[in-house]
Design the sequence.
C-alpha cells in the first residue's frame, strides 16, 4: 500500500507536468502575456485555469470528504482565517511571478526540460524558502 | 478558437486531474510550493511521496521532450530570475501556497484564504508586468 501511495504521487506529478507543457504554461512568455493586461494580453492562462478548476471542482465533490483510497484521512489546510502573512506572502509571490513568468510548478518542469534559466530560478526559489521557514516556523 | 486556447483547456484539465488523483488516493492537496518547501524541512514520513511528486514533475519534462519538441523562451535575465526566484520562494512559504495550491486546489475547494491569495498574487503580478513595461525592462 505504501508503494502504491508513492506511485500515485509520482503519476500525479507526471500528469501535472504534461498538463503544464501542453497548456503552454511552461512558457514564461505566455504567463507574462496573461499578466500584461495593459499591453499585449494573452488569455491562454484563463483557459488553463478554467480547465483545471472545472475538473478539480467537480472531482473534489465526487470524491467527497469521507476517506481517501490509500490512507485514513484527508490532509487539508486547517487555517481558514485571512491573515497578514497570507496577503503579504501572496503579494510577494505575485511580484516574483510577474518578474520571471515562472511559478514553482512550471519552473520545476523546466528543470526537467533542461532549461538552464529554470535551474537558476529553482535554485533561487529554494534559497528564498529557507528564511521564510525560519521566520514562520511552520515546519 | 485560437489553437493555444484549446491546448490551454486540455492541459488545464490534465492539471485538475492530477490534483484529483492526489486527493482521491492520497488525501493530499496538490500544492507545488508546499510540497517543495517541506522537502527542505526536517525529513519525516511524508518525505518520500513529496520526492516522488517532484520527481514526476521533472520526469514529465524529460520524457515529453524526448518525443516532442518544446520551445521555451525565457526572456528574463539571470539576475532578474534570481531575484524573482527568491521572492517566489519566500512569498509562497509565507502565504502558504502558489498557483497550484491556492489557485487551483484551494479555489476548487472554495477556500476563502485561497480565493483571496489568488486575487492578490494575480493583482501584484499584473502590477509588476505593468511596472516593467513602464520602465522598459
Sequence:
Amino acid at each position: 500500500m505504501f508503494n502504491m501511495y508513492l506511485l500515485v504521487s509520482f503519476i500525479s506529478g507526471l500528469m501535472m507536468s504534461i498538463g503544464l507543457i501542453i497548456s503552454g504554461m511552461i512558457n514564461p512568455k505566455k504567463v507574462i502575456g496573461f499578466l500584461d493586461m495593459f499591453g499585449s494580453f494573452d488569455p491562454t492562462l484563463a483557459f488553463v485555469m478554467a480547465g483545471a478548476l472545472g475538473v478539480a471542482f467537480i472531482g473534489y465533490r465526487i470524491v467527497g470528504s469521507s476517506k481517501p483510497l490509500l490512507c485514513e484521512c484527508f490532509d487539508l489546510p486547517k487555517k481558514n482565517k485571512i491573515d497578514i502573512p497570507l496577503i503579504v506572502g501572496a503579494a510577494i509571490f505575485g511580484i516574483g511571478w510577474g518578474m520571471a513568468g515562472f511559478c514553482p510548478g512550471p519552473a520545476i518542469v523546466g528543470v526537467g526540460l533542461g532549461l538552464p534559466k529554470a535551474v537558476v530560478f529553482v535554485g533561487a526559489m529554494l534559497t528564498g524558502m529557507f528564511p521564510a521557514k525560519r521566520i514562520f516556523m511552520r515546519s | 478558437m485560437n489553437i493555444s486556447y484549446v491546448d490551454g483547456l486540455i492541459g488545464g484539465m490534465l492539471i485538475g486531474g492530477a490534483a484529483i488523483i492526489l486527493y482521491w488516493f492520497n488525501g493530499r492537496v496538490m500544492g507545488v510550493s508546499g510540497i517543495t518547501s517541506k522537502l527542505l524541512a526536517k525529513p519525516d514520513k511524508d518525505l518520500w511521496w513529496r520526492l516522488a511528486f517532484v520527481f514526476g514533475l521533472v520526469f514529465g519534462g524529460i520524457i515529453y521532450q524526448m518525443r516532442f519538441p518544446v520551445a521555451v523562451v525565457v526572456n528574463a535575465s539571470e539576475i532578474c530570475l534570481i531575484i524573482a526566484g527568491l521572492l517566489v520562494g519566500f512569498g509562497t512559504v509565507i502565504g502558504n501556497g502558489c498557483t497550484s495550491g491556492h489557485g487551483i486546489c484551494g479555489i476548487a475547494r472554495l477556500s476563502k484564504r485561497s480565493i483571496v491569495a489568488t486575487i492578490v498574487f494575480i493583482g501584484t503580478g499584473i502590477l509588476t508586468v505593468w511596472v516593467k513595461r513602464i520602465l522598459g525592462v
